[in-house]
């Protein structure tokens, strides 16, 4: 193509001025846009056929027409390619309806082209680079969006406009489409559709749509109805409905018009986003509706329908000529050929006015003009004049528009303006739940809050969440919402835009001082922020110490933030962090903020210490979820650092700190905890950190114990013990060995180690599983005591552990002491002590969200009740433990359940539960309670088998030294008149 074809030379002034005005601000951004590729079919054959001169003329005419269509919809031609071009809609300047504009332009081009062309359109995300003086956008990345558009163009049949599925979704209803054969793009098959004409939809909200239940606008509806009554009485009214995009102007108007129908006829005309340069656009629609003209009626028919209506209203036929002329239909009146546009316009206005007044004479009229902010000048002038006449005509002129537009009739007595406010929380939730169709109520509440009372945002957010099915109400801003907000942001000046981006980096709320410190443009920041406040992007808050600004809508902040390129964001975050670091005397007061900024800056490693402090703080408040999140963020940064001991020690420190909150949140059995511990042991060993290795091993031991891997756990305990024997850390080893030994059915060995652990640990040794060694060992020692038949010692150890935990005022230690204490009471059959401690344990676990221990009081409370509610509780607790993978002590828990089942006369289930408990004990080497399970199971055997099972149980108890369990077996045997084979063969420990 000719060299003269650079965008600056053909882009019309109104578009180029807009681009240049914002050029500085839109450098390097991510944009949602639509890309249109257009090419002439077999141009070389055409050139040969026409000869060079004629061909040149044809091509020139084609480009002129095509470019005019592109510019009509405020697109820009970015590049000429052979005998075609690529045009962008929605960039450089964002348009909320870029896809619709692109398709309208395509239809226009196809209709005007004298040559055969193909067009392909796709919509999506593109990373934009700088805009040159020639207005050409330079891209840092084209991405798939553009590739697919080009591919669709190549695949289109001559004369056809092919659009991608994504574009089709964005313009659903606005156009008629037809399916075509799928297209292969690299390895992908895509399913484009062909555009065959305009659709019936002209706006987002239309009667007949499936709409969410109308809610929360009673006051406004009542006010509109009052206006209507006055108008119907003969005193015309003008009412403006003003509100942000999506706030529900059109919907309110629709609902109102439906209610108005029996009293008044409704005529509707609509302005379009691309309509500012199309004279009479909304008025045509009024006439079309009044005369019953369909969009695809041929000109003759249009003319005839207008004439018929004019006659029916008994108006002068000459009026019809002017209306037809305005419509571009040959008018048939020679006077109209006279080139006096001003006179023609005046007559046309008069014709329109008389038509409307005549209609109102038949029946009162509601004239609804939608989206006045896009109106063309001619229509606006007409409306201004028409409004002036209304006081004596039964017409209610209702107009919708967005803030920033002021209608030409403002201030007259018969005019009023109704400003829509955000919907209430209740109304918002009603919309959201109607879309989620009874789904998750928590999600509904989160969306209702995020949607900020804007029904359009609420609907789009709810649909996105529903379709994602993941239930994450978190970060995504639906594309539709993004487009609306991005279009608003793009209309800011370069300085305002830079200011809003800076603000977006600082967060929903930020102090003016901090922002000013980072601001790097020559104009003063404060003025920009105040302008943004005037435009209702920000609110200002005067605190006692500093001035702060707040984003009015969190979504606006997110969109401004997302629109920036990574590099710019990183830079701003880095500068924000540095500013906070310098300005704050005590930086660690601000560590959450510093972590936030540094982790998003170009030097994320600097975030690690702050993240760690923030996480430690959360951990100390038992905000385990938050703590884990912060540690994980630190981990992901540390893992990207250059390999070496420094990196490894950072990772180790984070992993070690994370283990306790992870266990408290998700339970010891959690597989991620196991991986965390295994990794920290590896790192500690390779770094030669003995203490860390031991800590890691003890934790891993705890994890394997709870998972019900008793034998593995014992091996880990031995490995730990070998490392610590004789050192100041010996207590840790004794604790692990002791606990394991009790579980494996060796209470005497267990007791010895647990007592040593409590003693060696002194007072302040913390186990990496989050408890203090003396509390935990003493609580567990009670079980060993009881098994060994030392009932009084069991009770005293149990009390001692609880008292110790209370004295150090540590909720998690107390939970552990109470939990073990409850088992001790249960074994001792002291139901009143059990009930008392179960209640406290339950409340404590609930308050702090302790996993694992939370289930114990459910089961144990279940056992202390006699009826079916006890059964439900116990089953729930056991089910929860299984779901966590916490299989330790399962034989014990199941024996309690079996007992409850038996007490409720569900004997078959009781027996099956005991059988499962027997299997669980074998599978998991969970042996300490096995003799008791066998004893209980014997109750369901035939006499002979029962005695033999009881004898085996007694032998096992005896071999374990579990005197308490042995006594129970002996009592049962005696009840059956049987005895042990070798009385007194209990090896006393
Ligand atoms: N009061 C309401 N109750 C339920 N849904 C509503 C309500 N108001 C609006 N909606 C829904 O919210 C969406 C957006 O509303 P609408 O199109 O009327 O907004 P608008 O203010 O006209 O926006 P725009 O300026 O973009 O034209 C529609 O789907 C509409 O059905
Ligand atoms: Mg609307």
Characterization of the model:
By secondary structure, the chain is an alpha/beta fold. It has 43 helices and 18 strands. Strands 1, 2, 3, 4, 5, 6, 7 and 10 form an eight-stranded mixed beta sheet that branches. A five-stranded parallel beta sheet has the order 12-13-14-11-15, sandwiched between helices. Strand 17 (538-542) and strand 18 form a beta hairpin. The protein is elongated, with a radius of gyration of 39 Å. The site of magnesium ion has 4 residues, from helix 9.
Keywords for this entry:
alpha/beta, 59% helix, 989 residues, binds adenosine-5'-triphosphate, eight-stranded mixed sheet, binds magnesium ion, 18 strands
What binds here, in terms of ligands, is: adenosine-5'-triphosphate, magnesium ion
Largest sheet: 8 strands, mixed
Radius of gyration of CA atoms, rounded to a whole number? 39 Å
User: Beta-strand percentage?
Assistant: 5-15%
Oligomer kind: single chain
Overall, the morphology is elongated
Cα(first) to Cα(last) distance is 100 Å
Percent of residues in helices = 55-70%
Put simply, the count of helices is: 43
Poorly predicted runs: 984-989
What is the strand tally? 18
Average pLDDT confidence is: 87
Which structural class matches the secondary elements? alpha/beta
């Amino acid at each position: 193509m000719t060299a003269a074809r650079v965008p600056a030379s053909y882009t019309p002034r109104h578009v180029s001025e807009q681009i240049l005005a914002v050029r500085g601000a839109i450098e390097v951004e991510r944009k949602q846009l639509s890309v249109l590729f257009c090419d002439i079919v077999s141009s070389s054959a055409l050139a040969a056929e026409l000869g060079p001169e004629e061909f040149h003329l044809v091509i020139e005419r084609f480009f002129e027409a095509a470019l005019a269509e592109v510019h009509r919809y405020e697109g820009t031609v970015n590049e000429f390619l052979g005998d075609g071009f690529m045009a962008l809609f929605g960039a450089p300047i964002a348009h909320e309806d870029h896809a619709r504009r692109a398709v309208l332009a395509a239809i226009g081009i196809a209709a005007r082209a004298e040559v055969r062309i193909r067009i392909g359109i796709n919509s999506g995300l593109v990373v934009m680079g700088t805009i040159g003086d020639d207005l050409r956008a330079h891209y840092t990345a084209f991405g798939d969006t553009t590739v697919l558009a080009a591919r669709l163009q190549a695949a289109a049949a001559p004369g056809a406009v092919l659009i991608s599925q994504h574009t089709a979704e964005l313009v659903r209803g606005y156009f008629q489409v037809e399916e075509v054969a799928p297209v292969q793009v690299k390895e992908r098959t895509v399913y484009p559709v062909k555009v065959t004409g305009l659709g019936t939809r002209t706006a987002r909200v239309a009667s007949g749509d499936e709409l969410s239940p109308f809610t929360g606008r009673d006051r406004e509806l009542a006010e509109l109805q009052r206006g209507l009554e006055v108008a119907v009485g003969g005193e015309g009214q003008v009412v403006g409905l003003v509100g942000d995009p999506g706030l529900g102007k059109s919907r309110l108007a629709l609902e109102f018009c439906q209610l108005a129908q029996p009293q008044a006829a409704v005529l509707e005309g609509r302005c379009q986003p691309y309509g500012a340069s199309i004279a009479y656009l909304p008025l045509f629609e009024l006439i079309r509706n009044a005369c019953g003209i369909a969009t695809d009626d041929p000109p003759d028919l249009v003319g005839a329908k207008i004439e018929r209506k004019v006659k029916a209203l008994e108006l002068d036929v000459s009026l019809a000529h002017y209306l037809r002329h305005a419509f571009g239909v040959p008018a048939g009146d020679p006077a109209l050929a006279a080139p006096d546009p001003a006179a023609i316009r005046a007559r046309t206005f008069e014709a329109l006015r008389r038509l409307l007044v005549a209609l109102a004479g038949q029946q009162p009229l509601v004239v609804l003009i939608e989206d006045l902010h896009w109106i063309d000048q001619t229509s606006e002038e007409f409306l201004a004049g028409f409004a002036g006449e209304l006081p004596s005509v039964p017409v209610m002129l209702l107009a919708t528009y967005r803030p920033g537009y002021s209608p030409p009739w403002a201030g007259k007595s018969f005019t009023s303006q109704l400003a829509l406010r955000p919907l209430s929380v209740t109304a918002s939730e009603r919309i959201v739940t109607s879309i989620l169709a009874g789904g998750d109520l928590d999600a509904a509440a989160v969306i209702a809050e995020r949607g900020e009372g804007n029904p359009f945002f609420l609907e789009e957010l709810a649909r996105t969440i529903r379709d994602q099915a993941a239930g994450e109400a978190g970060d995504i801003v639906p594309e539709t919402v993004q487009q609306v907000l991005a279009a608003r942001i793009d209309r800011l000046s370069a300085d305002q835009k830079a200011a809003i981006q800076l603000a977006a980096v600082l967060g929903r709320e930020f102090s003016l001082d901090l922002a000013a410190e980072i601001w790097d443009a020559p104009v003063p920041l404060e003025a920009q922020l105040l302008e943004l406040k005037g435009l209702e992007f920000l609110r200002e808050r005067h605190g006692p110490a500093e001035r702060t600004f707040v984003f009015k809508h969190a979504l606006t902040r997110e969109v401004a933030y997302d629109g920036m390129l990574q590099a710019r964001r990183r830079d701003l975050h880095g500068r924000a962090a540095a500013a906070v670091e310098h300005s704050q005397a005590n930086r660690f007061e601000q560590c959450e903020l510093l972590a936030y900024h540094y982790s998003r800056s170009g030097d994320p490693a600097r975030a690690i210490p702050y993240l760690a402090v923030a996480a430690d703080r959360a951990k100390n408040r038992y905000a385990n979820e938050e703590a884990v999140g912060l540690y994980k963020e630190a981990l992901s940064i540390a893992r990207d650092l250059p390999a070496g001991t420094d990196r490894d020690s950072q990772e180790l420190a984070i992993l070690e700190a994370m283990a306790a909150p992870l266990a408290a949140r998700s339970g010891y059995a959690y597989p991620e905890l196991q991986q965390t511990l295994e990794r920290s042991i590896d790192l500690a060993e390779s770094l030669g950190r003995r203490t860390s290795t031991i800590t890691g091993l003890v934790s891993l031991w705890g994890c394997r114990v709870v998972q019900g891997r008793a034998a593995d756990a014992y091996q880990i305990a031995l490995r730990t013990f070998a490392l610590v024997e004789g050192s100041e850390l010996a207590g840790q080893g004794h604790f692990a060995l002791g606990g394991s030994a009790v579980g494996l059915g060796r209470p005497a060995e267990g007791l010895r180690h647990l007592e040593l652990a409590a003693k060696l640990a002194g007072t302040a040794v913390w186990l990496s599983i989050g408890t203090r060694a003396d509390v935990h060992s003493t609580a567990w020692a009670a079980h060993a005591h009881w098994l060994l038949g030392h009932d009084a010692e069991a009770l005293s150890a149990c009390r001692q552990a609880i008292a110790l935990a209370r004295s150090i005022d540590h909720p998690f230690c107390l939970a552990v002491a109470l939990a073990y204490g409850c088992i001790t009471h249960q074994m001792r059959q002291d139901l009143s002590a059990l009930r008392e401690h179960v209640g406290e344990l339950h409340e404590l676990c609930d308050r702090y969200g302790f996993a694992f221990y939370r289930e114990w009081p459910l089961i144990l409370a279940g056992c202390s009740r006699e009826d079916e509610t006890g059964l439900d509780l116990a089953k729930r607790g056991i089910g929860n433990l299984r779901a966590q993978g916490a299989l330790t002590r399962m034989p014990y828990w199941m024996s309690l359940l079996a007992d409850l089942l038996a007490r409720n006369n569900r004997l078959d289930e009781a027996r099956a539960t005991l059988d499962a408990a027997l299997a669980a004990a074998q599978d998991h080497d969970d042996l300490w309670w096995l003799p008791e399970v066998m004893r209980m199971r014997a109750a369901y055997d035939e006499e002979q088998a029962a005695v033999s099972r009881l004898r085996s149980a007694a032998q096992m108890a005896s071999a374990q030294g579990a005197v308490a369990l042995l006594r129970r077996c002996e009592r049962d045997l005696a009840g059956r008149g049987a005895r042990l084979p070798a009385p007194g063969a209990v090896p006393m420990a």
